[in-house]
Amino acid sequence: MKATTVVFGILMHNWFCIKMGFFPTLKEVIARPSLLLSPAEISRIFMAKLWAGGFGDGIDEAGRSTKEHLITPNAYGSVLDLGAGHGHTTLYLDHAKVTRYIALEPNVNMHPLLRKAAFDAGYHESDGSFVLLPCGAEETSKILAALDSKPVDTIVSVLTLCSVPGPQKAIHNLVRDVLAPGGIFLLYEHVLSHRSDVAWWQRFCTPLWVYVMDGCRLDCPTDIYCADLEVEDDNGVMSSPWKEKELWGQVDEPEEHLLWHQVGKFVKN
Ligand SMILES: C[S@@+](CC[C@H](N)C(=O)[O-])C[C@H]1O[C@@H](n2cnc3c(N)ncnc32)[C@H](O)[C@@H]1O
What we know:
Layout: H1 3-31, H2 39-62, H3 64-70, E1 77-82, E2 98-104, H4 111-120, E3 130-133, H5 140-146, E4 152-158, H6 167-178, E5 179-191, H7 196-212, H8 222-227, E6 231-232, E7 238-239, E8 242-249, E9 260-268
Parallel strand pairs: 1-2, 1-4, 2-3, 4-5
Antiparallel strand pairs: 5-9, 6-7, 8-9
The structure holds S-adenosylmethionine.
C-alpha cells in the first residue's frame, strides 16, 4: 500500500476521534476555564469523553474475537487490568475462574463507568472482589502496597502499554514483582510495525498523536519488550522469566495499518 494511503487513513481516524471527543471536552473547558492551565488534564478528559462517546465500544467490537480467544480461556484468579479504561475487559472474564478484578486506571474521569462495568460483571468493592487502583502501571510500589504485596495470577494489557512512561522498565517490574510465579501475562497492543515504511509514518505521527491521545505512542515495540524480557534471578543471572511465550497478529489486519496489533500470551516460570 502507498504511504499516502496510510497517512490518509490516519487523518480519517484522527478526524473520527476529534469529532467524538472534541466538543464534549470543549464544553468542559468552557465550564472550567482553569483547565487551560493543565493541558495534560484536558487530554485525559478528551480520552474519557472519546471512550464514552462510542469510540471505546467500537474499539472493543473490533477486538472482540481476539479478546475472546486471548482473555476468556486464559485469565484466572486475581486479574490486574492495566489501563482498564471503562472496564471493557470485564466482558471477557469467566467469573467461574476469575475471583478478583483489579482495575488499574490513572484517569479518574474514567472511574464512574469503570466501576459500573465491574459491578455489572459481578465484581464488588464491598466484598473485595473488585479493587480500583488510581495509579500508573509504572508505579509498581504503589500497586504492591495496595495489594498488601500479594502478587496477581494474571496481568492483562489491552491497548495500554503504549501510554505507559518507560514501558520496558514498567513491564520488567510488573513481571518481576507483581505477577505470581506461574502467572500469565496477556497482551493485546498496537505496536511499532515490523515494516520500515509503516514504522517511519508511526514515528512521524507520534509527536502529535501522543499529545492528543493522553500519552499514547504509535511507535512502541511493547511486543518485543515482553518477548525479549530478562529479569535477574536469585543468583544475579539475567534470564527470561517466561516458561511459555507466544505472539501472533490480529486476524485479517492489513500490515500497513498504523495501529498495527500484536497479541501475546506469556507464562511466568
Ligand atoms: C486506549 S485506552 C484502553 C482502555 C482499555 N484497556 C480498553 O481496552 O478499553 C488506554 C488506557 O490506558 C490508560 N493509561 C494512560 N496512562 C497510563 C499509565 N501510565 N498506566 C496505566 N494506564 C494508563 C488510559 O487512561 C486509558 O484508560
